[in-house]
Design brief:
Elements: H1 2-14, E1 22-26, H2 32-38, H3 40-44, H4 49-56, H5 68-78, E2 89-93
Parallel strand pairs: 1-2
């Protein structure tokens, strides 16, 4: 909650200078780190990587792990002129995994 509040406060302070401030909260994104840490137990038990990744994603509503380019697309958009009226917000990129309301 502190980071969310900080983004709102900074958006208020930087807004008059046309500076936007936003948070991006990634969920499980298929990086090399996820491949080496998140599914190590399943791999050690002899499960294939693809099956282990499917098992890891079973609690995500979209039933898959996010791709790095999906996260990058949001960040690229937020850094563009097209997002110049978006500020003080927090956007989750998690396939619907977090079900709470901020």
């Amino acid at each position: 909650m502190g980071v969310i509040g900080m983004a709102k406060m900074l958006a208020d302070e930087a807004g008059p200078d046309q500076i936007t401030v936003n948070n991006v909260c990634p969920g499980l994104i298929l990086t090399d780190r996820v491949r080496t840490t998140s599914i190590t137990q399943q791999l050690a038990a002899g499960m294939a990587e693809e099956e282990a990744l499917k098992e890891r994603a079973k609690n995500i509503p979209l039933r898959r792990i996010g791709k790095p380019e999906e996260l990058a697309a949001l960040i690229t958009f937020l850094a563009s002129e097209k997002a110049s009226y978006i500020t003080g917000t927090t956007i989750q990129v998690d396939g619907g995994a977090v079900r709470s309301i901020f």
